């Protein structure tokens, strides 16, 4: 079997295992991280209502100008700060972290640490 296919299937299994345990509510939404080779994005999701409450991405102009690369650690830090700011505007202070099957390392960790520094609790 192709190594890339095996890696994708393993990440999907991890995602399903995480989603069985993690669910967002209106008071404490799920902070879902999506990462690709080019960008990193994050959403605040209320699973009970099935709605996205806020979104931030490294594709946004405010983040693109702040960092050299849209996929690097500096972009992840900027996206974490941006989502924390948008969550505060909506009155959200606590979230449940969903790393989306990615390792809690590198850009995912940088995003989470940045959001914590700006006041989100998880």
The Rg value, from CA coordinates, equals 14 Å
Distance between the termini: 38 Å
Number of helices, counting only DSSP H or I runs of 4 residues or more: 4
The CATH architecture comes to 2-Layer Sandwich
The CATH topology assignment is Nucleotidyltransferase, domain 5
Mean pLDDT: 93
Tell me, briefly, the overall form.
Answer: globular
Query: What is the element string, with H for helices and E for strands?
Result: HEEEHHEH
Main sheet summary: 4 strands, mixed
Strand order within the widest beta sheet? 3-2-1-4
Helical percentage = 40-55%
**Helix-and-strand structural type:** alpha+beta
State the domain count: 1
What is the total tally of β strands? 4
Q: Uncertain spans, ≥5 residues at pLDDT below 50?
A: none
Secondary-structure map:
Elements: H1 3-21, E1 30-35, E2 40-46, E3 51-57, H2 61-64, H3 73-89, E4 96-98, H4 107-117
Parallel strand pairs: 1-4
Antiparallel strand pairs: 1-2, 2-3
Helix pairs in contact: 3-4
């Amino acid at each position: 079997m192709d190594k890339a296919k095996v890696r994708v299937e393993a990440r999907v299994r991890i995602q399903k295992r995480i989603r069985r345990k993690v669910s967002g509510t209106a008071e404490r939404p799920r902070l879902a991280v999506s990462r690709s080779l080019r960008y990193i994005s994050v959403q605040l999701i209320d699973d009970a209502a099935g709605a996205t409450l806020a979104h931030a991405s490294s594709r946004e102009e405010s983040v693109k100008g702040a960092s050299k690369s849209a996929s690097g650690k500096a972009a992840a830090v900027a996206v974490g700060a941006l989502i924390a700011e948008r969550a505060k505007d909506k009155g959200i202070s606590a979230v449940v972290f969903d790393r989306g099957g990615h390792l809690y390392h590198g850009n995912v960790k940088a995003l989470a640490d940045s959001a914590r520094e700006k006041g989100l609790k998880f």
